[in-house]
Amino acid sequence: xxxxxxxxxxxxxxxxxxxxxxxxxxxxxxxxxxxxxxxxxxxxxxxxxxxxxxxxxxxxxxxxxxxxxxxxxxxxxxxxxxxxxxxxxxxxxxxxxx
Length: 98
Prior knowledge:
Layout: H1 14-38, H2 41-67
Helix pairs in contact: 1-2
């Protein structure tokens, strides 16, 4: 059952995330090299950590792109079975009776 709040033709922005992580990877590599040459080891380590994070993100994005699209049911298939009316009766406490 669709609630109406989710788009029925949603697509993942993996290609945009791919290029953003490539851009971040390039800047992190350049920052690590420049700060190491200038003699700023703290900033070089910070850029090195960003380099590692961007590499992991790029790896995950490429993995998801290679996996391809996954099966998505159509609008006529609810994401869960309709609730059973008998299963939703909760035991009432003795004080809940009006």
